[in-house]
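Table S2 (continued). Query chain:
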Amino acid sequence: MSAARLILASASASRRAMLQAAGVAHEAIPAAIDERACEARLGAAPPAEVALALAEAKAAAISAAHPGALVLGSDSLVVCKHRRFDKPKSRAEAAEHLRFFAGAVMELHSSAALVKDGVCIWRHASLARLHVRPLSEAFIEDYLAREWPAIGQTVGAFRIEGPGVQLFSRIEGDHFTVLGMPLIAVLEALREEGVLLA
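Corresponding output:
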């Protein structure tokens, strides 16, 4: 019996790169969902639950149009000092986020969900704690000159695989979680589903 077709319900270059580097055959079809409306429905739910719900919603949206396929949804969200952050909408907002994060601990929740024929068959959330060093205005301006608008597509206003690593003094947690998807757990789930050899 052939393995189920795997679809990544994301436009994230980082998530695609993770799967490609791990040797996981897939195709990417971005999910168009209203993330803010989904978050609003969840109200004061814990951040991990919000991230899981968004990952599942993305996978379910693609699953509806692709019967029989195994659809992987993923989401990340950042909480810092009890405030939840979305992707910055402008360079000025990115600067505001960085000023807020400076000298604080950023909690990054990354989640993944597998949906087949509209049914969620697996979900997982992981947490990384990123200790942001004090950031000078000169550093923030130089950083944004190099990284904007690319970081407008990232929650937390950083790419850990690029100059964003300079924001941090210490990182606690799995590297893949920081990249935006709990890859080790995803790979185990794909083995269980027969997509990868055990």
